[in-house]
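tokens incoming
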């Protein structure tokens, strides 16, 4: 089982001659500087070769003096299919079949639907994780974040300005493992609010039926067209 992950991806497979080099002291930091361009391509390549993903997630929102934490399970499948099942503190469902997106609150019998092309939601970029998007194309000025510390020693923390959601997000930070898996995403809003996703227990290329990403409105629940609530 893979250790963790989720964000925008594609290209690199470093294949070549085997070069013998002296072994590094595992107790000392690697003195070689990070090549952000090469590292980003490695992340792209990792996700570009996957057809599906499954993971547990924790979503933490901080802003306006409040903090909200939710958790559940996420499934992704090419192309643009997502299923977010929230279990705590309340049950919610956010699902996309690649064309339509549904947000359902069973306790309130509230259902909203929107077209994926018009989706402006912090979860939407994660749908492109299993695509052909390049990380450096999605995050302008992609660089290492030396003033920030990753949650796990040995991970790399990257930052950049999201092009697709520039009006609603001022910066995105990605925590990436040495195996090029994205395990944490922090989305920073211009007003200082942040939404953080932490992923664990990633399973790659699991068998997922397309029906898992379809949604049929329950009987007696009215569907409201328009923007989705968080």
């Amino acid at each position: 089982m893979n250790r963790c992950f989720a964000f925008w991806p594609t290209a690199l497979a470093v294949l070549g001659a085997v070069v013998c080099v002296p072994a590094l002291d595992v107790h000392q930091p690697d003195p070689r500087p990070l090549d952000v361009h090469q590292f980003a391509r490695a992340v792209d390549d990792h996700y570009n070769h996957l057809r599906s993903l499954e993971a547990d997630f924790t979503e933490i929102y901080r802003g306006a003096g409040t903090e909200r934490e939710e958790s559940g399970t996420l499934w992704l499948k090419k192309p643009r299919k997502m299923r977010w099942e929230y279990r705590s503190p309340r049950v919610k469902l956010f699902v996309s079949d690649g064309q339509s997106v549904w947000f359902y609150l069973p306790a309130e019998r509230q259902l909203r639907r929107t077209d994926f092309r018009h989706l402006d939601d912090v979860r939407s970029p994660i749908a492109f994780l299993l695509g052909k998007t390049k990380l450096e194309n999605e995050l302008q000025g992609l660089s290492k974040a030396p003033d920030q510390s990753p949650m796990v020693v040995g991970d790399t923390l990257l930052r950049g300005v999201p092009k697709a959601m520039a009006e609603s997000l001022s910066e995105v930070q990605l925590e990436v493992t040495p195996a090029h898996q994205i395990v944490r995403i922090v989305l920073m809003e211009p007003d200082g609010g942040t939404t953080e996703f932490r992923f664990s227990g990633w399973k790659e290329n699991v068998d997922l039926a397309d029906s898992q990403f379809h949604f049929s409105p329950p009987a007696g629940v009215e569907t409201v067209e328009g923007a989705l609530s968080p």
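note: Confidence is low (pLDDT under 50) at residues 1-30.
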